[in-house]
Amino acid sequence: MRALRILLITVVILGGLFVLADRLAVGFAEDEAAGKLQTSENLPTAPDVSIKGFPFLTQVASGSLDDVEVGIKDYEAATGTDGKTIRIDDLTANMKGVEFSGDYSSATATTATGTASITYAELLKTAKSEPTEVAPGVTASVIGLSDGGNGKIKVAVEATVLGTKLPNPVYVLSSVTTEGDTVKVHADTLPDFGGADIAENRARAITDFEQKIDGLPGGIQLDQVQAAKNGVEITVKGSNVRLAG
């Protein structure tokens, strides 16, 4: 009985040491991966990297991690226009089947899915905010974007007719979609600028706009987009996504 008790205590101690070693190892790996990703993506701060699954050491032995979650608070994505960028907030990507090198200098995920958001203030930079003539004596510009409910964006347009600024903005509800690497905003109905006769293409030159989003981390791509309370929420996906190296 004494020998059995000693054996059980030994097993418990060894099990505890294994768990401790496993958690120390995963913490080290997460820090190393975060540092490599920060360098490869030129991030101002290290991202959050969380390696899921237990035990970690057996995954290391196989050279593949089942599930890795990466979180980047702020990311400046390229727009393909004169070096300009657009800020992507709260980018979270879930990586599956991550193959990595022994020193974590390179890592590639078989698949990745994730979410992120773009504030209305950030997206507004894409819209035509300078007064533009849409008809003789009529100029207009987009001055605000907000949640229109039911997955729509409410676009506020300011107009001046024959030198007189309309007392209130004109609002239109717009749909937001993705096409490849581009977010597109398209008005469901055209604005009424005090009854002025304006051709549809001239009105849409103000109300409709698009924003290319290129160079997301690791080569992930835009998937879907939807208007929400504080901005547009996007989903991303990718295959053979590079985390580092």
TrEMBL record:
Q: Which domain of life is it from?
A: Bacteria
Q: Which Pfam families match?
A: LmeA (PF11209)
* Protein name from the UniProt record: DUF2993 domain-containing protein
